[in-house]
Q: What sequence folds into this?
């Protein structure tokens, strides 16, 4: 290990710059928004006092101030975010849409050809069905598992340890997780010693070892297990916190009404954690639509396991078919529209309340 | 294997009686044997694959390739060779894992702080400042979550390498960053990509703060920055901490962004890039895969385990509806 | 695609360790770069001097221990010229290179293992044409067969760097001696031998085509090798450029020949299971059952030498060795399938061109060969500088005037086929899909 501290110094200096920049930008923004309006306010007040001394009432002028500043404040609070998103996501999204109407090398317009290609491929139907299976099963099962587990270990003696165990996969990268599970699904011919746990269990029960990842549609389900395994921890942590936040008096009231634990779960627990539940399901759904590391590492989309995101990566970056890759990405945008509409309705409801 | 769980848990729920509090109700339920068994089954299923990896990482190469890791218990053969290879490597350039570790730290800290701060500000503005179009901005930001990271790489890279020009007029020159300065690009990229989800999650917390509290503060003449600092920030600290941990895990485990914006040199590349180079491309070299994978998850694990208490308790204390 | 570099990652420990030591020794003794620019050992580098202090960045798919050897191979050049070479290797090379080039952050030089990819960048106007010096150096040292792969539309872009021979069948000389088997010299002989071994109750062949996100490539090599043997080289060229359709009857018959082995449950897959297990067996592990006597033959390129466990003797009289994948009719020449990477540049600064020229020179080829685990098609390479027997055999084959060399077809085709549907098609073919349907499907995806 030839570790030389001198080599690391410039990096730490960069880190220091980064931290200073953070303090300057964020602190500066808050200070600016605090001090400047205050200064104006004080000046105006001074003027008002002067005017008030002269006679007329000051109420009208005072009331107008926050209304006018309101939009300005919103702008400044959002400024860094909007700028970053514009550069980092909005422009790329627009560019992707534009590219989807161009050919592989992005030098000629081809109209709707890429979309035609999308729907003329037999494979793409498979890809769509798979993506659908993913986006239904993963949020459902990951959330259910997380919720049940959160309920069951709540206030148990080993709660912290028990939670850490489920959360553990979150700490592992998608690629790492896929490797771990490829190890679980590994196959050796019949009569040989198995190195994959799943096949060994099958053999222990007297079955024949199988090539799990090569058998559709089972293989897609087995890949889905990997993502559930990762995401259940996220669901568990957020939902557990929501459960703990349920006010004691509500529970007490329900108890006095003599509800069974089953009713308690459906009538008290679930409605109380509904917002958290929605956040979890929505977040996992969007994450699932974009999943690509798992499929790529485990099967690379072979044996009928392909999903949109992984095919998009192959088309755009490995095959140099930028147009077709972009068309797939646009299709991904379209798929998220239902979730967006749901979110809009949610927001409306919230505002009405 | 996971699908069997919910069914049995149903019986667990009906098997209990007389709840007192949520906690008490649940404790009762845990006492029921079925529920205990179910939670243990889940815990085992969730832990076993990682445990297998951990055991494997200490087994000799030929053993890993020919027998299952569970045979370790009947025929224990232990070696540190795999870790030796990953940490110190066969090649001269891999003796610097510590250097890549420093890079990972330098990348991660600002990449967690910036999105958190910006997202908190934005979430507050979108929830509590009245201005026209704010709902549409929020929905727009929410929808941006779906933009695949991969499609954003090229335009962002072009932004750094060529700057911004409009009709021949240079609005912003190229950044021209070299060596350590490339960290800035990585921070920038991570911040951009983290914002939509961060705003979505934090907005959810911020918008649930009691309306009375905010209105009272406004009536007292407090400015938005003041409300944000003195009222909102302390109340959503738990949510910020929670998202901070997730963001930490994502940045620490990220490979794609680092590959593009940091490059592969030891000045800037994080551990993931280095480990992918040594372990991830080896296909069936299980001995390196296992130890490499384990090295890469040790740090997030330690961070999570040591912060987890604050994290969960924080979320609990952050109950804002009570 | 990754076919070429991937397998060579795993290196014989001994050589890598030796290098580690020599590398550290070098760097400690010769830290002062400029003082010895005029010393006698720098005489050979006179032509490249004059760019002292300039930096050249190189990006390629070669990683880890092998990347160290690579950097070591040009260290003397760096010392004598003062040009600093920044090397970076990545496993995601092909995709990342595209992103970097599109993003305006291209490296100065890259080693591209796929002429198809090289074509794409050249056609998009991203590559810089090679300088006159580089071109002269390349023409002097490489056969036109090789140079045509890096010439697009009459413009020459760069010389080959490393090369490999893919037409090899691995076997155990020991076992062959014990059982009295003979190394076959024709395709018919090879089938007879397979039948003979199968009759004894043993599976003659083992195969594996799993290779992460590049799964399928070893099967495409099989097909290409048989194409090269059943049709003329011209037809092979038409096949790779889509002059004839992918589902041409001649391709169908080549698949049929390969299927005689790969899809014959009596012949495969020794040590792993049935025909389908080929798709799930990693190519790195695929040949290992030869050592346990569970199979006798394994078709794989020269670089497979690095996959044998430490302590295995790779030699004509050792534990394992390889014979030339026999031709159908040896009288018609010696068809050889191979691969290699090309040194091309995205920049044309003088120091970049100097590095490019140097890497095409016989001095470099010999310096690199001495460090082991490398073959070059450079005519100036002295076979005696190549340390290990299988590399020596490869160099001899490449330099043999009878050899009809053709580049790996999947690397020549557009990536959508060569690194996409061709690979996927082969996986499905192994998994049970019939030949005609497989080829029709691949044909339908050829970019228009």
A:
């Amino acid at each position: 290990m030839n570790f030389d501290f001198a080599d690391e110094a410039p990096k730490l200096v960069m880190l220091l710059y980064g931290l200073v920049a953070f303090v300057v930008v964020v602190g500066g923004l808050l200070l600016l928004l605090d001090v400047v309006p205050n200064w104006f306010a004080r000046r105006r007040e001074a003027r008002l006092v002067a005017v008030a001394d002269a006679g007329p009432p000051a109420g009208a002028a005072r009331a107008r101030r926050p209304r006018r500043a309101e939009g300005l404040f919103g702008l400044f609070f959002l400024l860094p975010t909007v700028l970053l998103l514009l550069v980092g996501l909005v422009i790329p999204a627009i560019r992707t849409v534009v590219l989807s109407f161009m050919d592989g090398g992005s030098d000629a317009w081809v109209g709707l050809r890429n979309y035609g290609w999308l729907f003329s491929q037999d494979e793409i139907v498979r890809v769509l069905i798979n993506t659908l299976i993913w986006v239904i099963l993963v949020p459902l099962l990951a959330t259910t598992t997380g919720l049940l587990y959160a309920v069951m270990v709540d206030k148990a003696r080993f709660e912290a340890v028990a939670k850490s165990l489920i959360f553990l996969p979150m700490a592992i990268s998608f690629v790492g997780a896929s490797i771990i599970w490829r190890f679980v699904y590994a196959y050796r011919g019949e009569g040989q010693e198995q190195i994959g746990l799943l096949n060994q269990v099958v053999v222990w029960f007297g079955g024949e070892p199988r090539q799990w990842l090569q058998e559709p549609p089972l293989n897609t389900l087995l890949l889905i297990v990997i993502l559930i395994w990762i995401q259940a921890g996220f669901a568990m942590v957020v939902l557990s916190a929501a459960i703990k936040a349920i006010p004691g008096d509500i529970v007490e009231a329900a108890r006095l009404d003599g509800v069974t634990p089953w009713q308690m779960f459906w009538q008290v627990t679930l409605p109380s954690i509904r917002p958290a539940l929605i956040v979890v399901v929505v977040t996992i759904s969007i994450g699932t639509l974009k999943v690509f590391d798992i499929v790529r590492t485990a099967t690379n989309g072979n044996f009928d396991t392909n999903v949109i995101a992984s095919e998009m990566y192959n088309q755009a970056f490995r095959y140099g078919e930028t147009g077709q890759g972009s068309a797939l990405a646009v299709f991904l945008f379209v798929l998220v529209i239902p979730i967006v509409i749901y979110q809009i309705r949610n927001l409306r409801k919230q505002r009405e309340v | 294997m996971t699908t069997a769980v919910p069914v049995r848990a149903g019986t667990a729920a009906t098997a209990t009686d007389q709840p007192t509090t949520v906690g008490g109700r649940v404790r009762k339920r845990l006492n029921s044997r079925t529920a205990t068994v179910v939670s243990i089954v889940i815990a085992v299923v969730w832990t076993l694959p990682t445990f297998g990896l951990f055991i494997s990482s200490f087994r000799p190469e030929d053993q890993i390739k020919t027998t299952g890791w569970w045979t370790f218990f009947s025929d224990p053969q232990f070696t540190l060779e795999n870790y030796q290879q990953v940490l110190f490597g066969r090649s001269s350039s891999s003796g610097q894992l510590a250097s890549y570790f420093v890079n990972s730290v330098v990348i991660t800290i600002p990449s967690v702080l910036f999105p958190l701060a910006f997202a908190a500000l934005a979430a507050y503005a979108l929830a509590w400042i009245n201005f026209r179009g704010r709902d549409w901005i929020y929905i727009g930001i929410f929808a941006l979550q779906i933009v695949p990271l991969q499609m954003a790489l090229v335009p962002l890279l072009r932004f750094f390498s060529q700057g911004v020009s409009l009709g021949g007029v240079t609005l912003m020159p190229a950044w021209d960053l070299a060596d350590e300065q490339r960290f800035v690009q990585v921070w920038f990229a991570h911040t951009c990509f983290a914002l939509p989800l961060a705003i979505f999650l934090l907005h959810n917390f911020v918008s649930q703060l009691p309306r009375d509290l905010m209105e009272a503060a406004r009536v007292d003449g407090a400015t938005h920055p003041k409300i944000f600092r003195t009222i909102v920030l302390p109340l959503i600290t738990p949510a910020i901490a929670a998202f901070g941990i997730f963001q930490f895990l994502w940045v620490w485990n990220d490979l794609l962004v680092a590959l593009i914006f940091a490059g592969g040199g030891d000045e800037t590349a994080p551990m993931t890039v280095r480990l992918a180079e040594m372990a991830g491309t080896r296909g069936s070299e299980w001995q390196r895969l296992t130890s490499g994978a384990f090295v890469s998850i040790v740090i997030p694990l330690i961070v999570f385990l040591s912060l987890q208490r604050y994290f969960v308790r924080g979320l609990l204390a952050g109950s804002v509806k009570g | 695609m990754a076919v070429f570099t991937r397998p060579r990652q795993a290196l014989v420990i001994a050589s890598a360790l030796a290098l580690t030591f020599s590398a550290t020794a070098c760097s400690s003794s010769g830290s002062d770069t400029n003082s010895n620019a005029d010393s006698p050992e720098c005489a050979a580098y006179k032509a490249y001097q004059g760019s002292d202090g300039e930096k050249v960045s190189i990006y390629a798919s070669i990683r880890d221990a092998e990347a160290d050897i690579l950097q070591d191979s040009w260290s003397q050049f760096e010392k004598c010229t003062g040009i600093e070479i920044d090397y970076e290797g990545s496993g995601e090379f092909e995709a990342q290179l595209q992103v970097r080039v599109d993003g305006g952050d291209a490296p100065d030089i890259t080693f591209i293992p796929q002429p198809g990819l090289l074509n794409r960048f050249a056609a998009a106007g991203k590559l810089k044409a090679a300088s006159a010096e580089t071109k002269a150096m390349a023409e002097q040292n490489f056969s036109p067969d090789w140079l045509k792969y890096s010439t697009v539309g009459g413009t020459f872009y760069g010389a080959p760097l490393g090369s490999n021979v893919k037409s090899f069948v691995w076997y155990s000389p020991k076992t062959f001696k014990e059982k009295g088997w003979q190394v076959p010299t024709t395709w018919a002989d090879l089938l007879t031998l397979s039948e003979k071994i199968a009759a004894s109750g043993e599976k003659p062949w083992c195969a594996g085509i799993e290779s992460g996100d590049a799964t399928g490539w070893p099967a495409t090599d099989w097909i290409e090798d048989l194409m090269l043997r059943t049709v003329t080289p011209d037809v092979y060229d038409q096949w790779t450029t889509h002059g004839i359709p992918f589902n041409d009857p001649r391709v169908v018959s080549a698949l049929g020949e390969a299927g005689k082995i790969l899809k014959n449950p009596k012949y495969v897959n020794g040590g792993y299971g049935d025909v389908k297990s080929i798709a799930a067996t990693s190519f790195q592990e695929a040949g290992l059952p030869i050592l346990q006597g569970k199979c006798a033959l394994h078709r794989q390129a020269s670089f497979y030498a690095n996959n044998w466990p430490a302590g295995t003797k790779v030699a004509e009289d050792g534990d394992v060795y390889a014979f030339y994948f026999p031709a159908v009719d040896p009288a018609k020449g010696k068809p050889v399938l191979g691969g290699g990477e090309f040194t091309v540049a995205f920049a044309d600064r003088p120091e970049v061109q100097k590095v490019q020229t140097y890497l095409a020179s016989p001095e470099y080829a010999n310096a690199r060969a001495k460090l082991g685990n490398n073959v070059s098609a450079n005519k100036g390479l002295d076979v005696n500088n190549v340390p290990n027997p299988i590399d020596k055999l490869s160099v001899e084959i490449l330099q043999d005037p009878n050899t009809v060399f053709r580049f790996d077809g999947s690397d020549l085709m557009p990536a959508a086929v060569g690194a996409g549907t061709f690979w996927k098609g082969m996986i499905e073919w192994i998994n049970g899909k019939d030949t005609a349907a497989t080829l029709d499907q691949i044909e339908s995806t050829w970019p228009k």
